[in-house]
Amino acid sequence: MTQVHHHELSGVIEFTPPKYGDHRGFFSEVFKQSVLDAEGVEARWVQDNQSFSAEPGTVRGLHLQAPPFAQAKLVRVLRGAIFDVAVDIRRGSPTYGKWVGVELSAEKWNQLLVPAGYAHGFMTLVPDCEILYKVSAKYAKDEEMAIRWDDPDLAIAWPDIGVAPVLSEKDAVAPSFAEFNTPFFYQG
Q: What pLDDT is recorded for position 188?
């Protein structure tokens, strides 16, 4: 049976599906819509994305897309380990600007659901990380947004893995949380 852990931010859920192994290897049902349905997850998955990061300390995020292309994400690691972060960006939310960080790894076999209304990012903890994630809306370049990954107002406790962060040009110049104008509103 899939282990389910609800984190302190509403809708952020960690799933760990069982693995059944023998001398040949293992089998796992890594995605079961019925498990998400039982937890009240209403996302309709439209696309799978896969990324690879060669260097430890690679940071991707904090990213989001504005409505009507807001994306929920179901993130898992195929190879390696990451520190995965969800930040509540729903204005009026009692947890607005708060974050949850979870180590996801191929070894732990866990996944993180990041609902729409949250910014998402991750840092690779080891070399050669492959991440696979489902999204609930197609990519829409004109609706993509970013927030600075190391914004002091958010105070995300990124792991210190002893290397300088590796960032894209876009992420290196992302606006601060104070400059960010959220398109999301809490609907308590």
A: 79
